[in-house]
Design the sequence.
């Protein structure tokens, strides 16, 4: 599903990654671990093809990212769901509207959108919050809405960038439970975190980074 082969990225004012290699198989839930500045965000941006490596090869879902043009990139990203630490919800739109936006962008029929959004809201336990605005929700509820937004396209890959960083332990567990459930259905999950105590009893696969290098 994801292959990094001797990948290096150099940043002007911060550490990137140095000669990183790893493989993530389809359906795996992999924790990308390490302290702030270890290289987690750089790897995530490489997977999204937001930044290009200085050297090495990256293959995601059988696509060599070095060969993607703009049209290919848009198609490639349709198969990826993103979950952010700071939610990135549109505060002037309801939760229903936020979650439906990815489907509206690609021109899905309105009736299909309504059905899909209702289903995914039920899945994450937010059916009663469909018409609420983000500011009316708790942090845990907002992150559940972000999970729903990531799931709405039935992605092959979900990337979660410190999704529990602003949440209490109970809400954090809820988010990881939702992601584990999707992984069990065959979706590949890559979750960046520096909070080892939160995940120590859940870890099956992990990539540990320090100073831009894979250390385990």
Sequence:
């Amino acid at each position: 599903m994801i292959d990094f082969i001797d990948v290096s990225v150099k940043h002007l004012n911060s550490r990137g990654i140095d000669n990183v290699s790893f493989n993530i198989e389809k359906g795996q839930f992999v924790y990308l671990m390490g302290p702030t500045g270890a290289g987690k965000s750089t790897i995530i941006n490489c997977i999204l093809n937001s930044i290009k490596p200085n050297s090495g090869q990256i293959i995601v879902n059988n696509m060599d990212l070095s060969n993607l043009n703009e049209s290919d990139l848009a198609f490639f990203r349709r198969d990826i769901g993103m979950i952010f630490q700071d939610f990135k919800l549109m505060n002037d739109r309801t939760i229903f509207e936020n979650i439906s936006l990815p489907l509206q962008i690609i021109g899905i029929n309105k009736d299909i959108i309504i059905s899909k959004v209702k289903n995914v809201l039920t899945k994450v336990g937010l059916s009663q919050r469909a018409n609420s605005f983000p500011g009316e929700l708790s942090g845990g509820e907002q992150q559940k809405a972000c999970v729903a937004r990531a799931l709405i396209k039935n992605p092959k890959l979900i990337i979660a960038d410190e999704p529990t960083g602003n949440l209490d332990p109970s809400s954090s567990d809820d988010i990881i439970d939702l992601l584990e459930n999707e992984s069990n259905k065959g979706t590949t999950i890559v979750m960046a975190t520096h909070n080892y105590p939160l995940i120590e009893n859940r870890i099956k696969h992990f990539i540990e980074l320090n100073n831009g290098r894979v250390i385990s």
In short: The chain has one domain: 27-38+74-214. The helical segments are 40-47, 70-77, 95-105, 110-124, 139-151, 169-184, 196-199.
